[in-house]
Amino acid sequence: MYPPANSGTLTPVEAGQSEEKQKRDELEHLFDLDDDEVLKAENPWMRTAPVELFSAKNAGADDLAGDSPRQFMLFYRHFFPAKPYFEWLNYDTLNAGTSIATSPSRSFMNREFSFILTNETFMRYQSFKNMEDFKNELARLCPTRIDLGAVYNIRPKDKNMVRAGALVAVSKEMVFDIDMTDYDEIRTCCSGGDVCIKCWEFMTVAMKVIDAALRDDFGFKHLLWVYSGRRGVHCWVGDERARVMTNEQRKAIVSYLEVIKGGTNQVRKVNLPNTLHPSLRIISEHFKNLVFSSQDILTTPESWEKILAIIPDEAVRAKVREDWEDAPGRAPSQKWENLKNIIGQNIDTPKKRQQLENIPRDIIFQYTYPRLDDKVSVDIRHLLKSPFCIHPKTGRVCVPIPIETCENFDPASAPTVPRLVRELNEYDANHPGTEDRSKLQGTMKEVEFEIFINVQPYNWQKTSLREHVEVFEKFVKGIQRDIRAKKRDDASRSVDF
Ligand SMILES: [Zn+2]
After folding, report:
1. What domain of life (predicted)?
2. Which of 93-97, 171-175, 226-230 has the lowest mean pLDDT?
């Protein structure tokens, strides 16, 4: 089911059509479809120009447009927030937050990384000894995509040195993947790979609802929301309790959260118990704006028919349709009130009550409730694109989104490498005396460098990446607080005995 452990080429020149398709199917199982274009050789954004070394200082932002190999290289060398990233995946607190190199833990060393390279080579089961090893490989390979897999019982790199089946996944963050393509049947402004600020509201609702449920209903505390770089969001739950869950436990959480179910042919997809679901408050707030205004569902028969189709009683459906057609120009909010009234007037038997009573609520759910890509969540070995990748099609960095202000996030404004380079050059021009950290490495004694470097800002701190890395750092620090508390508890318990 999974591609081989070592690197292989995605689209072999001589491979037959069926073999290629089979490979694609395997890959689509492993990756979210959001990024299927990564795998296409004809992607115009991916130039295969020879890669040279550039410093961010000398790179003109304008020259960079369309030169993706250079963009990846500049990003990994100058902007990738390696330290907090390493501290996240390390899940330990030894030397954390100091300039002393943090000792790598098994969580880091046994973590599977997967890379896709510019030439479309796909490398699974990569693992690294420490942060330097990881950083060096990033700078050397410049992957167009980084995915994170599980933490295994042994180093994934050593997979081929042990007997088959000896590599066992032991932990991974609980993850969620929400993709705008799953909203194509209900959104009217865009389709396919496109998103705009109007349909992005579906993602805002999704983040709010899933975040609230994970915190309130499951008690998780450490949640990171990340823009997927194009048309979706990912959530990483870093609580220890979440990381050690079995696939069955992950499945149970997903089915609790999955209210919208059924294929495209099933008209009514909501399958709610009669008791009120706690997310109704959040989605009701957004329903009006989405359906009445930004998606404009109730203005033309073409789109309002989809809403009418959810009403199971044919006679009632016809009455609402007739009513709306009677004065199609009235405000959407008025049409919605009319629908609710007509349904209410037609509840005259217990059977009708059971059939119709919750229809308005179910319409609200169907048009606003998050649609999860569940295969990503329920298999601990499933790969998910890492935060701080660059989406090869849009050139946008996959940045963390603060949940408190998620409605202000505009995907079109996510940082791109040309913009980061421009911002860095502007900052340095306005702040003489700050130096490019990466250029100073090796120019002075290590001790001097450590002292010097501690007062120098990181390049990401000089750019619009800063606010996103700070969201990430807050997430990492929260996890570290819990780890410290647990260590204290363990220590005091051992003293007690
Ligand atoms: Zn749109």
Report:
1. Eukaryota
2. 93-97
Q: Convert the pLDDT of each residue in 388-419 to its tens digit.
A: 999 988 999 999 999 999 999 999 999 999 99
Active-site pick, 112, 239, 373, 423: 112
Report pLDDT for 442: 60
Q: What letters, b where the CB count within 10 A reaches 16 and e where it falls short, cover 58-95? A: ebebeebeebbbbbbbbbbbbbbbbbbbbbbbbbbbee
Residue 460 C-alpha to ligand 1 middle, in angstroms?
30
Q: Which of 87, 179, 239, 362 is catalytic?
A: 179
Average pLDDT over every residue of 83-88: 95
- Mean pLDDT of the region 15-31: 52
Whether the pTM exceeds 0.85: the reply is: no
How far does the centroid of ligand 1 lie from the alpha carbon of residue 66, in Å?
A: 24
Name the DSSP letter for residue 199. Answer: T
C-alpha to C-alpha distance for 232 and 203, rounded to whole angstroms: 7
Q: Report which DSSP code applies to 96.
A: T
Do residues 430 and 232 lie in contact, with contact meaning Cβ atoms separated by under 8 Å? Answer: no
Angle between helices 280-287 and 200-216 (to 10 degrees): 170
* Residue among 177, 211, 362, 423 flagged as catalytic: 177
Active site residue 177: yes
Judge contact between 92 and 105, C-beta under 8 A.
yes
Q: Within the chain, what is the greatest distance between any pair of CA atoms?
A: 86
What is the set of domains in the chain, with CATH numbers?
8-174+218-248+379-428+460-482 (3.90.920.10), 261-368 (no CATH)
| Inter-CA distances, 417 with 46, 70, 317, 424, 485, Å | 14, 9, 52, 10, 38
Question: What distance in angstroms lies between residue 477's CA and the mean position of ligand 1's atoms?
Answer: 35
- d(CA 185, ligand 1 centre) in Å: 12
Least confident of 1-15, 51-65, 249-263, 274-288: 1-15
Half-sphere exposure of 240 (CA within 13 A, CB side): 13
Residue type, 360: P
Alpha carbons 425 and 415: distance in angstroms, whole number: 15
- What is the CA(144)–ligand 1 centre distance, in A? 26
SS3 content of the chain, % helix, strand, coil (to 5): 50, 10, 40
> Would residue 31 be called left, alpha or beta, if left means φ above 0 and alpha means ψ between -120 and 50 degrees?
beta
Is 112 catalytic? The answer is: yes
Known catalytic residue: 179? yes
Buried b vs exposed e over 301-335: b needs ≥16 C-beta within 10 Å?
eeebebbbebbeeeebbebbbeebeeeeeeebeeb
Cα(410) to centroid(ligand 1), Å: 12
